[in-house]
Amino acid sequence: MTSRTVTRRPVTRARITALMSRLAGDESHTAAATSTLDVLHVLYGRILRVTPTSIDDPDRDRFYLSKGHGPMAYYAVLAAHGFFPEEHLDTFGAFESVLGLHPDHLLVPGVEISSGSLGHGLPLAVGAAHALRIRDSSARVIVLVGDAELDEGSCAEAIEYAAAAKLENLTLVVVDNISSSYTVHGRIEQRLRANGWRADRVDGRDQRLLEEALARRVPGTPNAVVAQVEKKSAQVENKSEAA
Ligand SMILES: [Mg+2]
């Protein structure tokens, strides 16, 4: 797949938000859903070398949504790019729907891992990146986690190992909505750099900056992009008031 051109559908951000509006239920418009929107839009529109016709290609790029709660933007982006029929969106969360509140890789075309239990995606991505390198594949592995998810011990081990193993085919995207228990501004990228990663913080709503940072491959070290988005608290307060 390396030498082939990836043909993607032209998809606008407005198209994705329109598709998101078809997702019904209490979970449809949470902060978790919209915080990832621009990152996912850039990844599937400009970065990932994977299309609906190459989801089984051993050399496809892998995207792992580790932060599996709030998958609405993810589903909308996949539908917009043709991985599954848009009509599936109307069934979101229903008993017999393939689109559950957490993505299921056995049910949803294009979904690489089932996720929702936090702290698993990064270790899985590290293993996949290692395996792809052993196979001499040019594929990249890009994993998206939340900022609070990095409090999980499994992430600490994966961060250390990825740098030690020089996994330059691995990219970690941290969507930072300032929701971790002990937030210290800048700590995420400093922690990654201290472990040997290339890590930069960018505006998580600036698609040009996101594309530039996500396209980067750094020789000899994994790459991390901390995407800063709006603070989570407002939406959480609204949700509790409604409950
Ligand atoms: Mg968060």
UniProtKB/TrEMBL annotation:
Domain (Transketolase N-terminal): residue spans on this chain: 24-215
Position of the signal peptide: none
Gene3D superfamilies named in the record: 3.40.50.970
Superkingdom: Bacteria
InterPro entries for this protein: THDP-binding (IPR029061), Transketolase_N (IPR005474)
Name by which UniProt lists this protein: Transketolase
